[in-house]
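thought: fold this chain, then report.
action: predict
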Amino acid sequence: MPVTPPAPTYRDVVREAKRQFARNQKDFRIEKHIINEEIKLLRQRQERINKEIHRLQAKATKKPNEVKNDFENFLFKLRSEARTEREFLASLSSSSTTTEDCTLRKKNAQRSQKYTGLRNRSSADLSTKRMLASAGPSPFSLHFQKKLV
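observation:
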């Protein structure tokens, strides 16, 4: 009958350390992948924003009043995206979940955000006007008001 030692043997300690190292390495790879994906999404978002700003700047020389409305709509869209992202991150930080759950929730939030964006486009103008009326003039609109005067 084998006798179990009162404390773990050196071999057991080394084996457990190797297992823990492998788990840590796997977790690190997963986190690194998630962070790289988030960086990629942020770069794509920044690229999209830059393109829209350049388009609006080019259009501003020809049709300043249209650009004012376009820019205010663009700002509203960015604010609503940021609000959705903050709400999502707040919901993530309030609950303890695994990495897979976080990834799944992010994907679901992105899908629902795209759907909500498509669904709310028709009411975006009214919402934008209400929000901008309460927020005051944008720096962009002030710039054009100075040029028009």
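thought: worth noting. The CA atoms of residues 41 and 47 lie 10 Å apart.
final: tokens above.
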